[in-house]
Amino acid sequence: xxxxxxxQQVMDDIVLLWLIGVKVVLVHGGxxxxxxxxxxxxxxxxxxxxxxxxxxxxxxxxxxxxAGKVNKTLVTLLEKRGGKAIGLCGMDGKLIQAxxxxxxxxxxxxxxxxxxxxxxxxxxKGYIPVISTLGCDDDGNAFNVNADTAAAHIAGALGAERxxxxxxxxxxxxxxxxxxxxIPEITIGQAKTLKDEGIISSGMIPKxxxxxxxxxxxxxxxxxxxxxxxxxxxxxLLTNEGAGTLVxxx
Length: 250
What we know:
This protein is of the alpha/beta class.
């Protein structure tokens, strides 16, 4: 999504699905943009287990970038392509409720509850909800929530027919260095076996965990797909071949 042409194609696909009556919810992060803004402000990015360490100053930057620049840019792109979109932050209407995940990480949030009502209201009015993944607690604290994890919880709360997890690899691969070894379909049980065997490893582990979270919450099917492939969303939803790896319950 850092490629402007690819971003435009994704927006085109979302608007096309919306035009034919598919209710789409777009959940986004913005790691590269956050890192870029931190660099401009002279603040160093630090990560632990792949999660950004987020002190009070950093969570303010995250809120500014995600709920402001990134969210409104995506809303504008969808509108320019002919769609109707409304931007939401996870703090709006306590959409994403969270607590501190690990004191070492500061204001990094673990999702405790999803209030789906704001999303449903927007869908029912015929708009595409665009959600930035900031969480909040009852004391008004803001939390930086991993976008994949937040999206999984939101999909579950909505009872989504399909949760599409866009990433920068082809899907789950038997050989991580060989895209031709793509596994087109897998169950959660098989995924656990592949994890034990070391085939699912490193950055794919949290993505598969997100699949499990979504399926346990009631999502029927989850797809891990290569977001770098043009029109991969349409390939997945509108063709028999699909795209990426389809993860199903038992």
